[in-house]
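Appendix B. Extra example for self-study. Work through it before the problem class; the solution is given directly after the inputs so you can check yourself.
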Amino acid sequence: MMAKITGYTLFKIFVGILISAIVLAAAGWSVFIPSAKEPSYQFVNAWGKNGSGPGQFNDLTGIAVAGNEVFVSDARNGRIQVFDLDGNFKRQFGNPGDKPGELGRPMNLTVHNNELYVPEYFNDRIQVFDLDGTSKRIIGSAGSDPGQFSAPGGVAVGKDGELYVADFYGQRIQKLKPDGVFICQWGTTGRTSHEAGSFYYPTDVALDQAGNIYMADGYGNRIQVFAPDGAFLRKWGGPFARGIYGPFNGWFMTVTSIAFGPRGNLFVADFYNHRVQKFRPDGTFLTSFGSKGTAQGQLEHAMAVAVAQDGTVFVADFGNNRIERWRLAEP
Amino acid sequence: MDFKTAGKHIVLTLALVVLASATLAAQPIYKFHVDGLACPFCAYGIEKKLNALEGVERIEMNIKDGVVVVTMKNGSALDEAVARKAVKDAGFTLNGFERLSPVSEQ
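Solution. Structure tokens for the complete assembly:
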């Protein structure tokens, strides 16, 4: 009899623990794994394949849209290729090297005031071109001092021409005057951390209309946001945005590129998840698109993202050496 | 073919073999593995650190398989500890360091 009561009690305790665990898991799921709040995107078309000819690529590492042109970093070919929005080749410029006009692994691109800003991973500099491909100036040099770079991966440009540079091995975001003079930085030079305001290999930067600074903390698997005065505002990406990676909505597996759309939402290239995720500026997950593969509409590592004024999204499909074009699905 | 012509051919062949061997001996090639190389931010980092080492002539990377092949300049050698440190400085761990050509003397 005693044994029966004890067994029944143990059973009740077990059931209680099980129910509690399920409730906690459900609560955790709803908190940490948000559902989509808008429809996904649909694939439109793609262009490119591996090679060195016009319209061919050898490592796509950056993309930007300006007006009706798409600029693409063709890293191992040491050049920028320019296409119309349908993917028709228009022109190219640059060769591998470290002289002015040459490129050493161009990365995430930015267009500002009809100038193309190209961070060069190998040459530790930002090279500025006019949109026809003429090199106009070079900012920065190799090193860890203020205003120097150690593998710059992305750049954003403010209204007054100030630069925000993701210094990949420098583990910092630097703010520079238009001529490259150092203003300030976020993060401790050369030191990785998952604390707010620190970085784990930052890859890209973007600015919203108010001048808030959005930073892609690459292997930190999160986005960090700062006010124009430098104050920390918020962060997101996985539980507590502490570097935990995963395949769920709102989680990342290496953030390699970010870009704003025309309605102020942020698009994130989620490299190892082979997808692009879309968020409101406050970090609310909206939707995602892309899956691993080589078929049309699939991605083999989403490396970079750019958004046209009409909301069309262009994705650098790294492993397949092609650009994919997506648009919001019809409801 | 007379004896004299055959002799010339043998001497020529031997000379080519010696020349090729000397070239290979002077230009060693090394191969090693690095896990997690799919992202170009990682792969370029390793490439950049290795390129900065003295004597490195060419680096080939198979990002998908995580294989790195380093060809050295004539007369140069790549020390495993040096390569390991370069890879570590790039944020990764080197595995399975081997000299492909010429094969190390035992």
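Self-check: The helical segments of chain B are 3-26, 40-51, 80-89. If your reasoning did not lead you there, revisit section 3.
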